[in-house]
User: What shape does this take?
Amino acid sequence: MSAGNINLKLKIWRQSGMRAVGAFADYQISVSPDSSILEMLDDLNNDLEKQGKDPVVFESDCREGICGTCGLVINGHPHGPKPKIATCQLHMRHFNEGDTVWIEPFRAKAFPVIKDLMVDREGFDKIMHAGGYVSINTGGVPDANEIPIPKDVASTAMDAAECIGCGACVAACKNASAMLFVSAKVSQYSVLPQGQPEKYERVQKMVKVMDELGFGSCTNTYACEAECPKGISVKNIARLNRDFIMSKIKSNTTEIEV
Amino acid sequence: MGWLAESLNSSIGKKFIMAVTGLSLISFLLIHLIGNFTLYGGPEAFNGYVETLEIVKPVIRVIELVLALIFILHIFNGIKLWYENKKARPDTYAVDSKKENTTFSSRTMIISGSIVFIFLVLHLATFWVAFNFSGDTHEKAMVYYSVVLEWFQEGWYAGFYVIAVLLLGFHLNHGFQSAFQTFGWNHKKYFPFIKKLGTIYAILMAVGFASIPIYFFINGGN
Amino acid sequence: MAILDSKVPEGNIAEKWTNHKFNMKLINPANKRKYDIIVVGTGLAGASAVASLAELGYNVKAFTFHDSARRAHSIAAQGGINAAKNYQNDGDSIYRLFYDTVKGGDFRAREANVYRLAEVSNNIIDQCVAQGVPFARDYGGLLDNRSFGGAQVSRTFYARGQTGQQLLLGAYSALNRQVAKKKVELFTRKEMVELVVIDGVAKGIITRDLVTGELNRHTAHAVILATGGYSNVFFLSTNAMNCNTTAIWRAHKKGAYFANPCFTQIHPTCLPLHGEGQSKLALMSESLRNDGRIWVSKKKNDMRDPNQIPEEERDYYLERKYPSFGNLSPRDISSRSAKEVVDEGRGAKGQDAVYLDFKDAINRLGKKNIEEKYGNLFEIYETITGENPYQVPMKIYPAPHYTMGGLWVDYNLMSNLPGLFVLGEANFSDHGANRLGASALMQGLADGYFVIPYTIGNYLAADKPTLVPTDHEEFAKDEAAVKNQVDKLLSINGTKTVDDLHKKLGRIMWDKIGMGRNEKGLKEAIEEIRELKKVFWKDVKVVGNSDGVNQTLERAGRVIDYLELGELMALDALDRNESCGGHFREEYQTPEGEALRDDENFSHVTAWEHKGDSAWESHIEPLNFEYVKLATRSYK
Assistant: This one.
């Protein structure tokens, strides 16, 4: 207990395996307000290990808010109550002495819990495999400046491309819908000239796989946008809807194979 | 037509159906409300209005059929979506933040929709059945207004009517802008306007429909 | 000691790669599908290699310990990627990029590799744009550039402050396309724990499934490691939590030479340590030094608030020592100067930190202007520290950031073990003793997109398309050894946690093999690390078991390798009796305190061969500078 530390009560979801029944466990911790919430969990784990107890399993990597690995639901908010940050960027100075902090995993049928706070987000990759690319090979491409792209178009594409693939949108959505994630990728390619040749095929393939994986559908509550650590806009979802409807009307393809 | 069925059965397809049927019903509501306002004109005005509709009965029947189909599609699809979405998120959070990141209207669509549906059944059973299937035409012509008057003087009925149309207002508040989002018409310049328009429309509908039972309940038709 | 053959082709430097591409053997398209290639790591180098090789028709097995191929630490690179496009008409050229890189690396890189890197840099930009990477653009719709340290031209392409992310997502998308085509088999949450070498040739790997704990054998005609650098040997670095040396270290123990392990880069503008519980150090973009002024108090142990220290009591030490470059002095020099003033006891409020002050810039340009330029970075700073940099000077301190050293590779990016190729930060080849900003992304993608697809064909063409079966005795032996190690780790049940031991190692590394090194300290470090290694094997506590998720066990395996690598880094630093780039030996400096290179005796790469526990033999690859004349760097 060093000076300036705050004392918190933690309620952390513990679940020993995918099929196991989970429950909340209580922990008491004294933490520096300068620590991030993940550093607090590091601390807790170090103590648990010393006692020979199983540490809390959670995922993180870059701890700079860009890799998208970390993702905890803290007091009901994916990535915590502060807007536009990832879990790793949430510092303990935003909590007060004596607070109770609830820490839960992302919850969605398509994101099964592997252990404790670690979930399986492979679904996102499967959607990407279905069409999250421009079909070109290495080499044989034109000079970079042969494709002029208006600054605002590049900027719109970049706004969408900032998605870190963390899954907070799914976690926040009452329907566990993956629309914000899918729409961000679809939008990036939909507005850029490089994405045009496969525009319609791509959106159909990605939506098809998204549906098959058991994500819910979008009911436009916009919780995803509110909780997204990168502030990805639901305008992308509108664009996805538009592209999807137009693709169904216009494209010659009658059967989508993924 | 396999592609069409597949398209409409996709998550976006289902949303598309909700949006198309929803907007159709929204338009119907406006016409319905304008018709209802003839009640304020007294028995003659209202009975006259209903009489006029009687003249073009075959057309009305077709419209009713289409409307019924739209209702059924909207309701059936809505329930299906709700059920599937529930399955997509089987576990809930111990602490829920939905109040902070969603609007009341948007997260209660199934509740407002269900109550409006129950209301609809009651509404049809009371007014629609009475208007269409009670005795011969001549006799009926005199009673439309009094049927309405009678029911609206029943406190529980008027109360339920008011609650239902208020919930309808919430339903519309989300549904209106949501339909445009589903069509992909979310534009930086126009969407804020659509959202406001939806809210104004929802308020107008709720207040408009609710005013009638309140008026009759308080005034007793005098 | 042997002299290593780098297999650099003959001829003029500008024609070497072109000629080499023509002279290399090819495999006809129908035969390529008879070859299997393992790629470990899916960062920029790995993902780009996976995609390009699969496009050519090879069967690729890609491995990552992440849950997705999109998470590698390449994603965190902020600034940009260099290319010699000369879009700005400011005199850039392939030759200039080559020259700047060799000079920036303090003349310890292989000229031919660097030239090739500069040559293919332009193709990288073309490739990424075609993939849909949303690079920043000017109003005319063409690509925008910014300038970066160590260059006098604007050649850095960028996508906001997320260039690494966008480039990685581009490579990841190309990889995804090949997964969809079934040319790539993607293995996520699988950590490579052993390289399988049969008759001196790399033939496969053993992986551990991080969810089930299962060990698996994978066989192939060639193995490519693209597993990044080893800055986490310092415990605290700007690297991601899971970055580790295990893949290359275990390959090293199987015979691959480790080159220049002591060449590490310490980045000057990182956030200082806040306390014991800190898990990593955050990088603040170097661009802040364009307008921020770096200073400390002239007095020792000055505990006053920075705003209460009057102007005349402040020491703007970089401006004082390097008047012409001032606050924009290169990374190694800025870092060392910060350490000096902190060692003198003049750190900010007694901490290991110096001030980066925007007061003058705000007065000169206005707050709005500063906000436009750095608003985003200021926000990040405030998120992490809780202090408002518009009002209080930022506190910064250097932190380990990149490792120039890595497995030794020849011109074809093949290690001394036939069949083992090493790409990106994991190899040693292109940056010499110091890497320039915006060059890491360039190297990773150059290796993956444009070098390995050619050179691996040349190797495979000489190999028969038969695979070693995974029930071969070497596979069995290696798997058993891994299992033994895991069992041993779990059975010690001592008193010290893996993190505590890693932190101890980090402290030794930072104090004695960090920014300043000397013979005494290095010798002590070797002893201390050996001691710590003994403590580890006697007293580590790894809870849980091996058949399921066990993150402590994962870390324990990595820390063992760091302990061994740390010793080799100290040995290499001790062996290199000169100062160059990021390697600063205090005994070898000019009277002004600058790095003093010894080109006569150390113009070479030192590649270490593992000879058993704490035993290494050094081999030499001489470096010849035919095109860039050896000169002393000066930033006065």
